[in-house]
C-alpha cells in the first residue's frame, strides 16, 4: 500500500504523475482519495496493479483550483490517508 501510494503520488514524468490514470484525474482537478487493497481480484487486476485500486474524489467547488495547481506547479492534492502512506514509504524506503 505504501509503495502504491508513493508510485501514484511521488513518481513523476516531467513533473506530472507517472501513472496515466492518475495524471488524467489530477489534471481534471480530483483529489487522490483512497487506495483500496484487493479491490480488483480479476486476473487482469492482479497482473496490472496487484489488485489495488484508487479512488479519486472530485469536490466540485475545488476542481478548477486543484487542476490549475496540478497543471501549473505539479502539486498533487491527496487525502490525509494517502499522504500518510506516502510518508510511511519515505521513512522506510531505502530508495
Give a quick rundown of the structure:
One of its GO terms (molecular function) is malonyl-CoA decarboxylase activity. Residues 1-58 form the Malonyl-CoA decarboxylase C-terminal domain. This protein has helices spanning 2-10, 20-27, 43-49, 63-73, 80-92; strands at residues 12-13, 16-17, 31-36, 53-57.
Topology, element by element:
Blueprint lengths: L1 H9 L1 E2 L2 E2 L2 H8 L3 E6 L6 H7 L3 E5 L5 H11 L6 H13 L3
Helix pairs in contact: 1-5
Structural account:
The protein is α+β, with helices and mostly antiparallel strands and 95 residues long. Helix content is 51%, strand content 16%. The protein has one domain (1-91). It has five helices and four strands, in the order αββαβαβαα. The longest helix has 13 residues, at 80-92. The protein is globular and about 35 Å long.
The helix/strand class is: alpha+beta
The total domain count is 1
State which percent range the strand residues make up. Answer: 15-25%
Shape: globular
The strands making up the biggest β-sheet line up spatially as: 1-2
Radius of gyration: 13 Å
Q: Tell me the number of helical segments per DSSP (H or I, 4 or more residues long).
A: 5
Low-confidence stretches: none
For the biggest sheet, the summary is: 2 strands, antiparallel
Share of helical residues: 40-55%
Order of helices and strands: HEEHEHEHH
N-to-C CA distance: 16 Å
pLDDT averaged residue by residue: 95
Total count of strands: 4
List keywords for this structure.
95 residues, alpha+beta, two-stranded antiparallel sheet, two-stranded antiparallel ribbon, 5 helices, 4 strands, 51% helix, globular, malonyl-CoA decarboxylase activity, Malonyl_CoA_deC_C, Malonyl_CoA_deC_C_sf
Amino acid at each position: 500500500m505504501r509503495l502504491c501510494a508513493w508510485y501514484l503520488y511521488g513518481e513523476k514524468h516531467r513533473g506530472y504523475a507517472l501513472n496515466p490514470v492518475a495524471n488524467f484525474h489530477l489534471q481534471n482537478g480530483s483529489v487522490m482519495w483512497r487506495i483500496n487493497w484487493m479491490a480488483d481480484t480479476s486476473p487482469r487486476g492482479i497482473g496490472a496493479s496487484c489488485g489495488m485500486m484508487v479512488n479519486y474524489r472530485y469536490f466540485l467547488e475545488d476542481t478548477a483550483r486543484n487542476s490549475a495547481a496540478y497543471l501549473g506547479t505539479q502539486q498533487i492534492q491527496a487525502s490525509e490517508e494517502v499522504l500518510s502512506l506516502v510518508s510511511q514509504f519515505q521513512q522506510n524506503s531505502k530508495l
